[in-house]
Amino acid sequence: MNDVAKTVLRNRIDPVTASVIQGALENIAVEMGFKLMRMSYSSIIRESEDFGAALIDPQGRQLCESKQSTPLQSGPIPGYVRGVMRQFAERGEAFRPGDVIMHNDAYAGASHGPDVAFIVPAFLGDRLVGFSVTTAHHLDIGALSPGSCGIVDAVDTYAEGLQFKSIKVYDATRRNDAVWQILRDNIRASDLVVGDMEAQIAAARIGAERYLELIGRYGLETVNAGFEDLLDYSERLMRDAIAKLPDGVYRATNYIDGYLEDADPTRRELPLKVAITVKGSDLTVDLTGTAPQVPDKPINMPLEGTVDVAVWLTLRSILLDTAVYGHIPQNSGLTRPIRIVAPKGTLVNPIFPAPVIARFCPGNQLADTVMKALAPAVPRQVSAGIGNLKVIAFSGLAGEKHWVHMEIFEGSYGGRYGMDGIDAVDTLYANTRNNPVEDIESHLPLRVTRYELRENVCAAGKWRGGIGSIREFTYLADGGASVEGEGHRFKPWGFRGGQDGYTAALMVKAGGGKPRALPSKVPYMKMKAGDRFLAVGPSGGGYGDPLQRDPGRVLGDVLDGYITAAAARRDYGVAIARGAVDAKATEKLRKSRRRRR
What we know:
The protein is α+β, with helices and mostly antiparallel strands. It has three domains: 3-232, no CATH class; 383-544, no CATH class; 551-596, no CATH class. 32% of the residues lie in helices and 23% in strands. The chain is built from 15 helices and 22 strands. The protein has helices spanning 3-7, 15-39, 43-46, 71-74, 77-91, 177-186, 190-218, 220-243, 303-319, 322-325, 360-374, 437-443, 551-559, 565-572, 583-596; strands spanning 51-56, 62-65, 100-103, 115-124, 127-137, 167-171, 174-175, 248-258, 268-279, 282-286, 338-341, 390-398, 401-409, 446-453, 469-475, 479-485, 505-509, 516-518, 521-527, 532-536, 576-577, 580-581. Strands 2-1-5-4-3-6-7 form a seven-stranded antiparallel beta sheet, with helices on both faces. Helix 2 (15-39) crosses helix 8, helix 7 crosses helix 8 (220-243) and helix 9 packs parallel to helix 11 (360-374). The protein is globular, with a radius of gyration of 25 Å.
């Protein structure tokens, strides 16, 4: 056992008090999250839950986070705070009671520009005792085209929208009106965006108030001691899980589409490489060999804020599955045993001012690559390849006012040991919800004319892959759209004999014309009233030998319309006649298939 591991065996206070403090901290973050959801104006926060809330200690360590938020929002919050602390130190600025700091610097902790944090320092007298922070994805951040996703042709970070580098929007309780006027003057749909920002500030202030109430109840020393014990406890859980893995190096490679229609090969079909080294209770994730950064396209991923979250979230999900371990305190202790190596100037550690706003889908593919690398070591704890996501920015003008809608279009999970893949959901670090049809149609000049699961594109396996969905939008007024996506070229990987999954697709149909296929990344394009926009989601990979799948489950998939009887025979060796499994014919088919192998 190394020295760090030994230190986590000591408790500073009694476990009961530590547990009470843990519960109180987590409830504060959950309250912040729910308050933010209820106060927000836009569906991206209210419905999709694309926000984060957390409490951070004065050293930049996470105390707790809002459980109902997406990991890609709450996970980067410690990095936001550390980035602000660095920039304040460089500028000679200090935190003061009543401050509210706005921050979205992708090269100082933020995930990307549209994910704006509002940070409220908490003071006990004149002593800084922590930070209450909310983050949220905003509908527009003043970039070259409407919306804050689907911007896939920015040449640098300056083209991606407004940059807020540790800006005090409240300075010792005094509101900085000039900053708020700049926001309103430079952001489309500013009523929605500024309303969401004000909701973030209110939720962060609530968090700071509740945190100070907790300190008042137990005392600062007791709360700090309880937090240190929680960090050590989380670290011990992660170290124990890592120590159960066989020592060695585990490797995997995946690819992202990049820009499939670009003639320059350095912008398309780009590799993501992962090598995971396990040694005792320490784990290193080495991303050497990943493609160089693309200097003038925004698919690069900030190391702090995207890459680290993709790695940590995936490892935590695999090694400390809540279904097995129950509740685990989510704090910075979980990341202590993990080291990330990411060479500068690559997709996973770009150099400023390389653009990064479209880092969402590449980052999710990186998380999938981490899963793939570790799969041989823990085959019963991983899923097969996931079907990645899309973000579609719909927009338009109603008179002189912009409307903007961010559609997070689902992917799907691959099969896993004992379970079929989950159909039509966000995956891995995304974990957001889709927008209800009723919400879209009641607020926007869009009609959802189709929303259904795909048919007969189900990756076969002992446990089948999840199925993608189809969603079609019809414009009721002139507008536009842009798309940030993945998964048009490379199929989700099958595992242990399971079939590879199925790729995604995008199509537009102008008026009464024929459908036109689009790549996974589409810069802003104009749309007319009556035009249709069709998104087809990918299907995840299968897990295990399809010939071992329970024939009754194959029959169920046929009866549900997921696959045809012909596909059941071809992929699973299951004969179905008159709505039932023909057991003798199935046994004969499967024996014949196994002999041919």
